[in-house]
Write a structure and sequence with these properties.
- Chains A, B, C, D: Belongs to the chorismate synthase family.
- Four copies of one chain form a homotetramer.
- Chain A is globular and about 65 Å long.
- In chain A, helix 1 packs antiparallel against helix 3, helix 1 packs antiparallel against helix 8 and helix 3 crosses helix 8.
- Chain A has a single domain, classed as Chorismate synthase AroC (Chorismate synthase, AroC fold, 4-Layer Sandwich).
- Helix content of chain A is about 25%, strand content about 20%.
- By secondary structure, the first copy, chain A, is of the alpha+beta class.
- Chain A has eight helices and 17 strands.
- At the A-B interface, strand 1, helix 2, helix 5, strand 12 and helix 6 of A face strand 1, helix 2, helix 5, strand 12 and helix 6 of B.
Chain lengths: ~350, ~350, ~350, ~350
């Protein structure tokens, strides 16, 4: 109800503010008897972690997950998996200056108005730090559907973009550079641009493309819970996301049906895939691919006008350690959200079988 | 679970195939004692109805709603509102040719694979006829939130688009033309283009822009159920939708933070509104606006390769009466889905108050 | 949310007032490709129907179910099953006298206070007529779990009760008499007593016992959704039910652990079954059995004090055609609710399997 | 889905096994800006805690709650309240003997069969230690509805019972004795009996009565989620509960309607209250009262036959520190569950208002 859960069968509920004692969550409905790969979970946490390269925020967050339940002798037991990620290194003093002010394009103001109270330390619940819990759950979800391959990567930063179809990219190069762009020439340009932006104390937006391969036919529910609708919601729930398109996306809106239809091969695969692997909300076995737009983060290391809770406008100098461009660190988050949606539908699909 | 419901407090569940006896739904959680305007409901049905102009499908659907419960002496009673829309004029014979074949970019194939059975008559459950039930519920939802104004309109057809910001448009012109485009010069071009496409037996995509005004501050739930995430899911659940963006959208991904941030006025409004009326998933009182991309409909009045259930490719001539461009009739559906989401969050928001 | 749905995977939502145009519901999540036995559904409707014998109400309700969707060529398609039961023979005039009054121990008063409006005709939504929709859905649920046997029967009427364990009863005798009591000597006494009560214009309570056999091990979810908790809720949701006990029930509260524990046999079955086939909320393969207490129905054909909406007490003569004892007709409802719960958990259980 | 959540608006999800690192939970949907009384929370924890008197188990559990989120400067913020209760003093060695055996009337066997794996230490997830999380959440729920008074007490132990109506009892005496029975003469007998049972290494069942006073009219949802149905489910979800009755309960099933109906006073209150404060599933403002039956706990300090995972029956001596009678410690749990249900419906009720 209150928006802190995702999924129906494989269900994640998260809690935690950026400067509270800990973040965490509960995964309910994870199948039992799954031998968990904890290194794989920690690997995803490292990918999301601040401070991993010079182009991302230098905040230090240890991001060590502690599993409190639902796992016994390394295996899931079918009972809820409770976990916490302690907030070990949060500097509360960095945020005292925003106690009585609302920063532009932050959630400060609306939280105060909605709830009548606000944990002003570092964004509180609206901080992207919350996504750490999503990455934990997503890393477990991936292990429920090991044959399905999920690869996300940075496809644009500002005006710089990869001008190739994803089929021409080598996904094994994604982790080879700080931007997480598999096209290395483009990656270099992006990295240089982000350094420039950082010097200016500014920020810049970007897009992430995600490709899901080896999906069984039949995942997704028709009508309101179409597979792409649920993927879209999951992506739009990530901080700073302003757009989602799958398959032909917004380009498809300019096309004619005779250009857009995907003709079948005799085995049920299709010659083209403008449908993006989904027909009528249900996977058709072709690659699912989609693109997610992130706006530039609102926190700048510049002077900006802010609103006070006394309804005055004052000038404030932004400070702290923030990402000049959020997309490199958002790549594992996009993958995690995709894994949560796909694993959930994978499990739900079993209920259609009477035998 | 099975994807036929939307909403949490104001909850709609729909049923019905395009060629069954009737479509319909249940609205559960509608506030009591609301005097319903039935003409307003029927007006929305007329807007969605096929055959209303020469540029949409000439199929006749009466689309008369019958309310079976939940309304007494013209007022809602707080009990579930059950309604049906009989399928009075469905020509089953039109569809017999697709019994054993799967049309390209339709849901025929995936339904067959997912369920092991398929109502092949006219798309069955995957037909856009299902959206008639959404329009009924959306028209009621609008009456729950009468002070909030929701206006959707066609903003592009193929390559033709309105090149003005929505603030320069007169929403009272939306219903003045068959395309539902408030910019009349553009509307004329769109209409001419759709006629051309129709002559070719082809179809074309388009986009719809929706603007929601006079929204109270505080609607939306943080984290997974952000207001724009739920709006995005609702829009992506409409047949043929391939993309959703709100506020600055995909353009925002190219911008710098210093350009993108919306500075406050002293009263809490903002000078610009690239945030699209939503901060951290919660409405901030500014206009909410978003754009929805529709692919061209897959049914063409041309010869196309189709797959048979014997795994052969054969050529089939498309027939029947279909929309060359779906966006004019999708305008009331976009509004209905927006109304469902906003009304739901409006009611949910009451639960945060202890007094 | 608003209480008109039951189930998670196999989910029923109902609508309809006793004197509206129709009752009905939507079953969402029914497995596909199940060949439905429509005679079996109608048979259950006949069992619930008023007027079937001289000891039940002589109201005539045709109770003919019309399926509007989700079934194609006799089989379920996996899409929602919408159905209606028209209210063909409701005499509205019978109820005009209660428009401005609240009958004792009816829901009139609380509906008016909760919703600010009330469909006063015949109890409206609070009428037991709503259970017709449950019987439809329960009859379909039974067909999802055909190997599981559900038998309910009347175990007491007033002070008259069967003084044998259920193992000594022949369930094939349940339908042999108007009371639905398989112990024929007791059945006769019950029937005579109900006739006597009817003559007095009074009503009497009773209990129904339900036995579920051949249940697979493992149904039920631990903690909040224990199998017996869900069964209990389902039974308590039936009109007039005031109590639920399973296995040893209230008697078990008087026992010692050394008497109560069920020793195992080597095959995992147990020598005794005071646990009622459920351990820790999960079925253990033994018979599940429980008992449901129904209070006497509140409508009497006697003079009674009633409250007016002007806060006066006046004397009113009860009239109409009502059941002197509700339990005989409640037997199929108890079975239907049990079937809904068991089928739902049966389907949910599939999601624990990763392969 | 997987049964670890309760509530819709005020929603609790719990995790944790008896011998894992910690138990805990997330409360989602708690209204914001509520100043929490932490002493009141800890007081409820003390009431549930083992080792508080000589007639309950002598296990030591510190049961100190740590709040990790959702509370800021002592007030709720409207974001999810995450909390943990570390398992500080669990003696794993006590349970090694049950690794390969299934104890009679425990959940060992069904967990193993359902999940294919089992955390055998001390009952794992099926341990009543899980209820500690419920007491935390219930104590917060009580603070949402401060004017509603919830009092539970032990009404019987074995064959010993209070033979007075609850109106003749002084609830302030409940905490005055180890049994939590407000009738002191009966309390003494109960205590003596429990000591006797304890000496025998046996256990005994009992009942708890709960009275909820000062309830606003209109709480509860009709049809499937009737107030008493939800209360019943909540109670039946407590470990060892085998029965639930409210108002006249099972006695009501023996009565005639003319005896059972509650006549109105002119102010809408009723002269009698056999309805138990609920009509048609909705509170009517009178006292809500119900009774809960607990079977004797299955763990005995005696020799018992157990089943091995090699399908052999062996004799095992029960050991450890267990409650001879669970009802004294279950009193705060019953109150907590009642508070969760009432608070949830209290909040949900706000959504019916359009203004």
């Amino acid at each position: 109800m209150a928006g802190n859960s995702i999924g129906t069968i494989f269900k994640l509920t998260t809690f935690g503010e950026s400067h509270g004692e800990a973040l965490g969550g509960i995964i309910d409905g994870c199948p039992s008897n799954v031998l968990l790969d904890f290194d794989a979970i920690q690997f995803e946490m490292q990918r999301r972690k601040p401070g991993q390269s010079s182009i991302v925020t230098q905040r230090k967050e240890e991001d060590e997950v502690q599993f409190l339940s639902g796992v016994f002798e390394g295996k899931t037991t079918g009972t809820p998996i409770g976990f916490i990620i302690p907030n070990t290194n949060q500097k509360s003093e960095d945020y005292s200056h925003i106690k009585d002010t609302y920063r532009p394009s932050h959630a400060d103001y609306v939280y105060e108005k909605k709830y009548g109270i606000r944990d002003y330390r570092g964004g509180g619940r609206s901080s992207a730090r919350e996504t750490a819990s999503r990455v934990v759950a997503g890393a477990i979800a991936k292990q429920i559907i090991p044959t399905i391959k999920i690869n996300a990567f940075v496809s644009s930063v500002g005006e710089i973009f990869i001008d190739k179809p994803y089929q021409d990219l080598d996904f094994s190069k994604i982790e080879s550079n700080a931007v997480r762009c598999p096209d290395l020439a483009t990656a270099e340009k992006m990295e240089a641009y982000i350094r420039e932006i950082k010097k200016q104390g500014d920020s810049v937006g970007g897009t992430i493309t995600c490709v899901i391969q080896n999906v069984p036919i039949g995942l997704g529910e028709p009508v309101f819970d179409k597979l792409h609708a649920e993927l879209g919601k999951a992506m739009l729930s990530i901080n700073a996301v302003h757009g989602f398109e799958y398959g032909s996306g917004f380009c498809g809106a300019k096309m004619k049906g005779s250009e857009h239809n995907d003709s079948y091969n005799e085995d049920g695969t299709t010659k083209s895939n403008l449908s993006g692997g989904i027909q009528g909300g249900i996977s058709n076995g072709m690659d699912i691919y989609f693109r997610v737009a992130f706006k530039p983060v609102a926190t700048l290391l510049q002077k900006q006008d802010v609103l006070t809770n006394q309804n005055e406008i004052i000038v404030q100098q932004g400070k702290g350690r923030h990402d000049p461009c959020v997309v490199p660190r958002a790549v594992p988050i996009v993958e995690a959200m995709a894994a949560l949606v796909i694993a959930d539908y994978y499990l739900l699909n079993k209920t259609y079988q009477t035998q």
